[in-house]
Amino acid sequence: MEEGAQERPMKHEHVITTKGLTRSYGPETGIFDIDLAVPRGRVLGLVGPNGAGKTTLLSILAGMRAPGEGTVSAPEGRVLLCPDVPDFEPWLTAAEVVALSAHMVGEKAGDAEIARALDRVGLAEAADRRNGRFSRGMRQRLGLAAALVCRPEVLILDEPASGLDPQGRVDVLDLITSLRGECTIIVASHLLGDVQRICDDVAVLVRGRLVYQGPVADIADRGRPNAWYLRTHGPVDRLVGLLTAEPWVTRASRVEEDCVHLEAVDADSGELGIPRLLAEHGMPLVSMTGFQEDLESAFLSLTNRTDR
Hints:
Layout lengths: L5 E2 L6 E13 L2 E6 L2 E3 L3 E5 L6 H8 L7 E5 L5 E4 L11 H11 L6 H10 L15 H13 L5 E5 L7 H13 L5 E5 L3 H7 L2 E6 L2 E7 H6 L5 E6 L4 H8 L4 E8 L2 E6 L2 H14 L4 E6 L4 H13 L1
Helix pairs in contact: 2-3, 2-4, 3-4
Organism: Nocardiopsis alba (strain ATCC BAA-2165 / BE74)
Keywords: ATP-binding, Nucleotide-binding, Transport
GO molecular function: ATP binding; ATP hydrolysis activity
């Protein structure tokens, strides 16, 4: 097989894989040596700072751009890319856009299939309206309908919720969630909260290189705190002494009369040890506050470490 060519994979656990995928536009610009495995039937989030290479990678996965080096294994003709704001001929109605999309990929779609696709994205009542006057959110949903009617095996969404009002974001995210299992979805987004909400797995690009891929739960776990503020009833001097004597505590100090700042060797030790110690000594816990456990914390940790 020629370098950079696409091959149709066997039915297995990964619907798309890349090996040594590289497309360079100069030093530190492009993507470099990407080994990516996209699990079949799941939602994969692709995140990274601006200029990390997300758009380049997505366009190669969709077959719209050729890699400079490396290989891509993907379902031939069954990978569709939906841009952040799809651009359609303004005089076409929503139904005509969906019908044309199906025709262009050779998919038979009658009136019922077109109506079903529009209804699924909440545009049933706009089927006969020209899309030129659609809002940004409506065009994004129309793009999803145009993709869904083609029955893709892999659907790539580039910033599907960007620029939408809160309700529009919720609607689009709920729609993506409803597609889980019907097809494999790759979502590129800078909204890390959205990625954590809808994605099963995440891939992190930094300066064109893949620095992490795996379940969202695993990377979010990296953002768990190993430092907390504990508030109890009454003076905390005795609590500070008890904590300092524990082998899993690296630091304990009084912050206020009823508040202690505590650092542990790791998150698990603190989460297990703090309630146990308080229960053993009959000390009621008012509150226990650590850093937020989310994808953003882990993402910042990964990108800051890689940029050094």
